[in-house]
Inverse folding.
């Protein structure tokens, strides 16, 4: 297959050998699971259970909270211990409502929806409904509810379902292991998704530094003519949705548009596996594979974790810390976010937990920009990081937005490369946050104006009505008085 | 040559006088700037700026009599828009960026007098006579007018809590690094 070049990018030290040969192992059931209501983009789920309720494995414990939302299910059987606010696996460490489940050790399945007997004759709606009810969200990290993306076929003309197995972030090997060990499940899930989307072609893109995964997937796909496995060049950020689409099709996704607008829908390989489980067995998304790695961990590993296990449980399973980690990261080292502590739970979009030593991070104090222009050369989005950062430093978000800061994918290549160690991507994340906050404020003001105008109208109308009634009464009284006078006047 | 200069001069004088006359006779009496400024303000007539409503504040702004930093509900966003329109530099040092707040009715203290309901310019308070009132937090824009009219001090302003959706990264600290 002919591939197309993508712009810029970097070649960091991949350090995947720490875990790439470690087969997936299941985490022993922890003493408690912490299931947050918000594990996805969109509205948080709504609780369906009460404290003290017994639940079965796979039972829905929180339902979807809106059009863009996803339900949560019990990862094992047990009792609801509490529903309370605990710290989220988010850099802010803000508390959010979380269901605490105490496993009973029996791991008994509850009543599951019937498997869809022949998904390739089922209609899009049936499959999407199942995917939505199974709480499946994008497992590559963004955690966008998958059913919505599977519905795109009804709105746009699509050509390709692109399965993202690039896994371009250093350290992470969970997708690599899932592809090696569950290739058949992924291919089946992908074919079901392609059927739901109504696309004729499935392309599975895997970076060439994972030859075993490419082999396993090619073997599993060999019987299906519509499925093609492609090895893509090792170039960070190849796993970015837009860049992968460009590498495969040669088409660039316009700013503020979706890849679906140019005919391609991208899903992560682990998401395809979850779809397979949901459609073929009726099983909701209640566990995922997480890479626990970094030199501060004694025995790095790939672990199949029930959703809601604490990060501390995973670290303990990996033999604890060899040295005190300098930094704890949720996701990969380039795009991952710092974890606020070890007591936060694993959620659906968490692909890796990294405990890194100071030597691995090699953090340096920032110094003056030497105008080398490297950040401009390597920016995969074709932006000018040095200039954007200069304006953001002065809080000039308007110019930063004109320079395209909202099109930055926060891949971190510029920060990684900068010889002066300027935290470029940090500036861009700050600017994006500020611009979004300003947008929210503007919308609120607009809403306030509409409500205030409606209020004024109503008050004026009420006053006018009152005046009219009063006038009518007065007129009536006057007429009555006049009539009376007339009666009294002798003829 | 003379003909060209002459004709252009005559044309200039004639057209100039027409324009002058038009400007005199067809002048818009109201300052159009006022209307534009009014559009930029939240329009909730909360009166926190010290003027009766947004219209009056806009008039004062157009005359250059009022600082652009008085609108509390509008916050920084409105100040910046006004600054651009009026071509002045927003002096944000004096502007205390208040954390956005919303009103909360302490239910134990509410006697159901409906005074706050009448005061609310965005209909954000629900309730009825002698029944407990409550504020629809999403709609409240934090003008605090209801706080002033409550006879039992049952309303207080609370900062809108940060959520996972509204949180974002703060500015990097080592700013001296870039030139």
């Amino acid at each position: 297959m002919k591939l197309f070049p993508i712009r810029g990018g970097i070649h960091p030290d991949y350090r995947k050998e720490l875990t790439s040969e470690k087969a997936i192992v299941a985490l022993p059931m922890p003493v408690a699971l912490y299931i947050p209501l918000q594990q996805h983009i969109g509205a948080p789920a709504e609780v369906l259970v009460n404290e003290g309720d017994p639940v079965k494995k796979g039972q829905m414990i929180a339902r979807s909270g809106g059009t863009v939302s996803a339900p949560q299910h019990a990862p094992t059987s047990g009792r609801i211990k509490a529903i309370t606010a605990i710290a989220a696996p988010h850099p802010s460490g803000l508390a959010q409502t979380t269901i605490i489940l105490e496993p009973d050790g029996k791991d008994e399945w509850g009543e599951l929806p019937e498997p869809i007997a022949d998904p390739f004759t089922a209609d899009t709606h049936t499959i999407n409904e199942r995917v939505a009810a199974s709480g499946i969200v994008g497992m590559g990290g963004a955690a966008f509810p998958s059913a919505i993306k599977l519905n795109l076929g009804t709105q746009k003309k699509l050509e390709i379902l692109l399965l993202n197995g690039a896994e371009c972030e250093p350290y992470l090997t969970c997708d690599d292991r899932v592809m090696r060990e569950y290739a058949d499940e992924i291919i089946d899930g992908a074919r079901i998704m392609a059927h739901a989307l109504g696309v004729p072609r499935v392309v599975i893109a895997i970076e060439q530094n994972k030859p075993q995964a490419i082999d396993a997937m090619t073997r599993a796909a060999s019987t299906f003519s519509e499925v093609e496995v492609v090895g893509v060049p090792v170039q960070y950020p190849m796993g970015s949705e837009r860049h992968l689409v460009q590498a495969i099709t040669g088409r660039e996704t316009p700013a503020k548009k979706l890849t679906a607008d140019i005919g391609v829908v991208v899903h992560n390989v682990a998401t395809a596996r979850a779809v397979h489980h949901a459609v073929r067995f009726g099983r909701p998304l209640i566990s995922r594979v997480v890479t626990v790695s970094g030199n501060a961990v004694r025995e790095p590993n790939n672990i199949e974790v029930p959703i809601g296990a604490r990060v501390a449980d995973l670290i303990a399973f990996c033999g604890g810390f060899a040295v005190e980690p300098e930094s704890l990261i949720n996701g990969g080292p380039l795009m991952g976010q710092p974890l606020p502590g070890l007591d936060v739970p694993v959620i659906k979009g968490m692909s890796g937990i990294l405990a890194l030593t100071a030597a691995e991070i090699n953090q340096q104090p920032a110094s003056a920009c030497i105008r080398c222009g490297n950040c401009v050369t390597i920016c995969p989005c074709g932006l000018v990081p040095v200039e954007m950062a200069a304006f953001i430093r002065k809080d000039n978000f308007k110019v930063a937005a004109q320079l395209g800061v909202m099109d930055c994918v926060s891949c971190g290549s510029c920060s990684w490369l900068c010889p002066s160690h300027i935290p470029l991507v940090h500036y861009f994340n700050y600017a994006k946050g500020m611009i979004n906050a300003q947008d929210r404020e503007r919308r609120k003001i607009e809403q306030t104006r509409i409500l205030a105008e409606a209020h004024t109208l109503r008050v004026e109308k009420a006053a006018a009505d009152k005046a009219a009634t009063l006038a009518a009464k007065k007129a009536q009284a006057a007429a009555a008085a006049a009539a009376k006078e007339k009666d009294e006047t002798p003829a | 040559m003379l003909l060209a200069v002459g004709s252009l001069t005559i044309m200039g004088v004639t057209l100039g006088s027409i324009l002058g006359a038009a400007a005199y006779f067809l002048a818009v009496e109201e300052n159009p700037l006022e209307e534009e400024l009014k559009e930029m303000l939240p329009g909730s007539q909360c009166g926190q700026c010290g003027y009766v409503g947004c219209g009056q504040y806009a008039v004062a702004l157009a005359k250059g009599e009022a600082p652009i930093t008085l609108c509390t509900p509008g916050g920084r966003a409105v100040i910046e828009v006004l600054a651009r329109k009026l071509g002045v530099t927003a002096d944000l040092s004096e502007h205390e960026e208040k954390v956005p707040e919303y009103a909360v009715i302490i239910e134990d203290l509410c006697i159901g007098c409906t005074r706050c309901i009448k005061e609310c310019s965005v209909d954000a308070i629900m309730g009825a006579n002698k029944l407990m009132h409550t504020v629809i937090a999403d709609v409240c824009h934090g003008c605090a007018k209801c706080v002033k009219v409550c006879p039992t001090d049952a309303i207080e302003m609370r900062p809108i809590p940060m959520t996972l959706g509204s949180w974002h990264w703060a500015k990097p600290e080592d700013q001296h690094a870039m030139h």
